[in-house]
């Protein structure tokens, strides 16, 4: 009788691990899909000059010389840093909501929300006009 209970707990634990692994895999794939496009995105924004003031501010804060060859590196670093900073800010909120409502509903909500946001961003015409390499 005890072995039946242990087996069912093992199966349930294995199923939970699979679901969490699949959610993390989808999230990582969604984040890394943009990496091959990053050089083209950086070139696009450097040509339009729409984010040049932000790069110049970041350059002043970090103390990098005023040379244009550093623009794409600084912009890429700024995007990566912004992602990490926002993840740092949102993790305690997501953890608290997970404590209140449970892990599964919140995991489902965040995965569906991220999917909707990425689907919306994929349909933006200016994003699609950026050609990879």
Automatic annotation (TrEMBL):
InterPro entries: MFS_dom, MFS_trans_sf. Belongs to the major facilitator superfamily. The chain crosses the membrane at residues 20-42, 73-97. The keyword Transmembrane applies. Its main location: membrane. The lineage of its organism: Eukaryota, Metazoa, Chordata, Craniata, Vertebrata. PROSITE patterns: MFS (PS50850). Keywords: Membrane, Transmembrane, Transmembrane helix, Transport. One of its GO terms (molecular function) is transmembrane transporter activity. It comes from Cyprinus carpio. It is a multi-pass membrane protein. The keyword Membrane applies. This is Major facilitator superfamily (MFS) profile domain-containing protein. Signal peptide: none annotated. One of its GO terms (cellular component) is brush border membrane. Residues 16-133 form the Major facilitator superfamily (MFS) profile domain. It is found in: Membrane.
């Amino acid at each position: 009788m005890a072995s039946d209970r242990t087996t069912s707990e093992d199966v349930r634990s294995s199923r939970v691990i699979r679901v969490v692994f699949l959610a993390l895999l989808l999230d990582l794939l969604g984040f890394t899909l943009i990496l091959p496009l990053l050089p083209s995105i950086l070139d696009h924004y450097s040509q339009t000059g729409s984010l040049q003031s932000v790069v110049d501010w970041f350059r002043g804060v970090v103390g990098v010389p005023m040379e244009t060859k550093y623009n794409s590196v600084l912009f890429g670093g700024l995007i990566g840093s912004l992602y990490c900073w926002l993840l740092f800010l949102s993790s305690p909120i997501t953890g608290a909501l997970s404590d209140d409502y449970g892990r599964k509903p919140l995991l489902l909500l965040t995965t569906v929300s991220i999917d909707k946001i990425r689907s919306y961003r994929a349909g933006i015409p200016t994003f699609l006009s950026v050609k990879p390499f």
